[in-house]
Amino acid sequence: MIDFISTDRETTGARSDRRTARSLPFSRRSFLVKTSCFGAFYAAAKLIPLPALAAELASDSRVSQMPIVDKGFASVRKIGNGLYATISDPSRGGTTYCNGGFLVGKDSAMLLEGFATSGGAALQMETLRTVSQVPVKGALDTHYHFDHSMGNAFYGANGVPLWAHASVAERIIESYAPLQRADKAAMLGPFEKRVQDAKSDTERQHSQSDLKAITELFQVANSSLLALPNHPLDPAKLPISIDLGGLTAVLESYPGHSGTDIIVRVPDQNVVYTGDLLFSGFYPVCFDEKATISVWRDTLKKFASFDKDTLFVPGHGQICGQEGIASIREVFDDIAEQAHKMYQAGVPADEAQHRYAVPDKFKNFPIYAWGFTIGPTVAKLYVEWQAK
Ligand SMILES: [Zn+2]
After folding, report:
1. I need a surface site. Which of 136, 157, 238, 274 has the fewest CB within 10 A?
2. pLDDT tens by residue, 275-322
3. How far is CA 229 from each of CA 137, 144, 249, rounded to the nearest angstrom?
4. Exposure pattern of 110-144 as b/e (b: 16+ CB <10 Å)?
5. pLDDT of 41-71, one tens digit each?
């Protein structure tokens, strides 16, 4: 059973969806979908276009040079035998926002990610159907974050079992259900106050980026129907192998980003879908209460030990090889190095969070919002050092 948590709002555009859902056995409540405008959503990230495929990947025989679909905000390309990657470019729209993909065997297929909107999930399902008609075994949310799960309702409405780490349902409810009942002004108040109280221009800019991100999160949560996984994966029972017919995927759990992270490996082809444990060419999002910097860096060290020809589909950013893992590790190293100097010099944590300077080599790395990326990384590192 897929649980739908509906908002008490409804628009005319939702009626046909509701009618469809009524005929489906898994719909417990009336199926309410509010049509939404995501125009402002992706404005939080700096509008830096997604880089093209790296030269090494352009000659990788696994990776098809022509996408099978290109919508601007996302494109889907073949990256292996029965393997496809959906790569988002948030600078061109927020329908999908995160990356995903699908795996197609002789007997069945698996979809990856619920994306930021049900339109994103629909695009992926439609694209799958252009290459295969096999039954879909399930759709996996690699973790609970809204940009990977707000489109889940599409899978629910289409009878696709929704897989995720066992804690995902609870985290979605805890994190996003309250936003659907929240008073916008009351919720944004503290963030507006931080902008007003900023002690410097830098701090003001950072606080403004956070306010923008929170405003947009509020809009997305309020225009989405929350749909929860009905196929929970107990991390203690991972890894598990999934046989899709001539194609075996392995689901593994690693800590670091959200406390609910699951990756999909295809060992025969050295392809790994990492979810947000890898941000490729982006500053990593570290705000989650379960995000732990040292543990995440350990996970990345493990990824670095995977085969040298591994192809990674990150949660955000372009498809990459081991150079993508090296690059996010360098970002963490740089934040840690700058923060540690400040720590030793006695700079307080809340000040250090704003003092980090983006070096030239990372100047094209989008920063989703300062208080979701660099700020909490510095703060969490301080806590780790203080605990030593
Ligand atoms: Zn995430």
Report:
1. 238
2. 999 999 999 999 999 999 999 999 999 999 999 999 999 999 999 999
3. 13, 10, 19
4. bbbbbbbbbbbbbbbbebbeeebebebbbbbbbbb
5. 444 455 788 888 888 888 899 999 999 999 9
d(CA 38, CA 43): 10
Helix, strand, coil percentages in the chain from 3-state DSSP, rounded to 5: 40, 20, 40
Structure tokens at 318: 């372009």
- In the block, tokens 């252009």 appear at 130
Q: What is the pTM of this model?
A: 0.89
- CA–centroid distance, residue 28 to ligand 1 (Å): 28
Ligand 1 mean position to 258 CA, how many Å? 7
CA 265 – ligand 1 centroid, Å: 18
CA of 15 to the centre of ligand 1 (A): 31
Q: How far is the CA of 61 from the centre of ligand 1 (A)?
A: 30
In the structure, ligand 1 is a single-atom ion and the residues with CB under 5 Å from it are 145, 276
Residue with tokens 């060419």: 281
Q: Is 274 helix (H, G, I), strand (E, B) or coil?
A: strand
12: CA distance to ligand 1 center in Å?
A: 32
Residue 65 Cα to ligand 1 middle (Å): 28
Ligand 1 center from residue 124 Cα (angstroms)? 19
Residue 182 phi/psi, 5° resolution? -75, 150
Alpha helices of 46-108 — where are they, by DSSP H? Answer: 55-58
Tokens for 56, please give them: 């090494």
